């Protein structure tokens, strides 16, 4: 079924020329490669791998360009975007932004969820990521993101090790305990 969605998406990219057909086939192949880790529909089932489904277009485009240009060093992504054109990045992004984000969260821990909800509101996370945490422009969607990935990312930001990413997050998470970060990650991962 997912292959049909990718094929339909690729067909939508095709005009009438052989070059367009080749471009669509190339994009379809790249999306399948991305899907091996990020999930065929962009909803990752692999620990430590972020979901791309439902992310804002500008955010995904920027991240992919930064990875391609070596401004974000992600060992698992080494070489994956080498030589990928801007047009291809835009097309791949279009596929993921049109895919619905589906939470991969485990069972809800009521007290942890409520603590995360309170901390997220007090920390004003909804100011940049929007009140429903679906992100906008260059701000990522954090609702329904993998809990383990959210925790990993927030720890990186808090310790100033999030190279190539928005430094405002370091200030936003400054002074938060690991328990606070775990609660926020749990809360956000449970949202749709």
Structure description:
With 192 residues, the chain is an all-alpha fold. It has nine helices and no strands. The chain has helices at residues 2-13, 18-38, 57-68, 86-97, 110-122, 125-129, 147-158, 168-173, 178-190. The chain is globular, with a radius of gyration of 17 Å. The two termini are 22 Å apart. The relative contact order is 0.14. The mean pLDDT is 91.
What distinguishing features does this structure have?
192 residues, mainly alpha, Cytochrome Bc1 Complex, Chain D, domain 2, 2 domains, 9 helices
Unreliable residue stretches = none
| Whole-number mean pLDDT | 91
CATH class annotation of the largest domain: Mainly Alpha
Helix amount: 55-70%
SSE blueprint:
Layout: H1 2-13, H2 18-38, H3 57-68, H4 86-97, H5 110-122, H6 125-129, H7 147-158, H8 168-173, H9 178-190
Helix pairs in contact: 1-2, 2-4, 3-4, 5-9, 7-9
Quick take:
The chain is mainly alpha-helical.
């Amino acid at each position: 079924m997912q292959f049909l969605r990718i094929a339909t998406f690729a067909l939508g990219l095709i005009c009438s020329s052989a070059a367009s057909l080749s471009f669509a086939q190339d994009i379809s192949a790249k999306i399948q490669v991305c899907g091996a880790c990020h999930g065929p529909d962009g909803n990752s089932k692999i620990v430590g791998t972020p979901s791309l489904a439902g992310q804002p277009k500008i955010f995904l485009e920027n991240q992919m360009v930064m990875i391609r240009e070596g401004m974000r060093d992600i060992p698992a992504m080494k070489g994956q975007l080498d030589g990928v054109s801007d047009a291809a990045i835009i097309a791949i992004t279009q596929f993921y932004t049109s895919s619905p984000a589906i939470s991969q969260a485990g069972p809800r821990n009521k007290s942890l969820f409520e603590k995360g909800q309170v901390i997220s509101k007090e920390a004003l996370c909804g100011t940049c990521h929007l009140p429903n945490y679906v992100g906008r422009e260059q701000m990522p969607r954090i609702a329904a993101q993998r809990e383990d990935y959210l925790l990993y990312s927030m720890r990186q930001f808090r310790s100033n090790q999030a190279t190539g990413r928005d430094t405002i997050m370091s200030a936003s998470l400054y002074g938060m305990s690991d328990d606070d970060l775990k609660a926020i990650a749990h809360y956000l991962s449970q949202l749709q």
